[in-house]
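User: Here's a chain of 357 residues. Predict its fold as tokens.
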Amino acid sequence: MAAGGDHGSPDSYRSPLASRYASPEMCFVFSDRYKFRTWRQLWLWLAEAEQDLIILRNALDLLLPKLARVISRLADFAKERASLPTLGFTHFQPAQLTTVGKRCCLWIQDLCMDLQNLKRVRDDLRFRGVKGTTGTQASFLQLFEGDDHKVEQLDKMVTEKAGFKRAFIITGQTYTRKVDIEVLSVLASLGASVHKICTDIRLLANLKEMEEPFEKQQIGSSAMPYKRNPMRSERCCSLARHLMTLVMDPLQTASVQWFERTLDDSANRRICLAEAFLTADTILNTLQNISEGLVVYPKVIERRIRQELPFMATENIIMAMVKAGGSRQVQRFLEEEVYPLLKPYESVMKVKAELCL
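Assistant: Prediction complete.
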């Protein structure tokens, strides 16, 4: 039987990331059409340099504003609930009070680190340029009769044509596969952040203090329709675990590249790079949807606080201190660390997340 098959057929496997979860724009970046179009551009620019660097850059450009929107939505939520006291937990046992907004800032802080890391990795990307089959530029030196200045000018011109500011000085037949490690490490870290956030939401949903949005036509469970299962948060956790594991592929690939290049990287990278970005895209779309509709139940929160306060301190004093402290910390954190990060993405903040349930 020939490899491949009719991927649109019900008799052929299709990745749910592409067919169900990820956005059309992210699927397009990793599509055959986009790949072939990029190849044609590269050949027009006299470059046998790999298209993957262009795809990685463009995929990162899609993720950055999505992550910024999630942070923005959570920042609005944190500001609104900055002075609402809630019971804090350590070891998932009742501890001291915090506020709903302050707890949300823990989530935001992790995502801000992810935004900075994604931006750093994107800005650090360098093009391979015109380096030849083993990275020596020998064929181009021959073409220009040993004029290395012309070779360097061609390298610079092709790099700029591809939209990069810098190119690698040293390469083998490919750019170093350490780049893939850098990119997928940042995506794996994002997966860890999202998993922690959505686990917290799932636990709070069990306590009935907070829940994700619940559509009018949504059924909680096929067997128990009265249930309000946190299915969006569960989806995020499920996919985040997958995203975190994918970094092992480029780690293994980079470690076994022999000399200037071996081809055992190709099939692996074709899967793991696309899977990582489609997965990250999906969890950010889903988390944005969650953050746009988080529901808080103050009465339930207050009842739990009343149960635990006698074991903590004088009720009125501690409540007043937490309200003031939480509000002050949230405001300072948002103004000093969050809003400046979001400024470059102001023009795309109004985009809503469309989610297939």
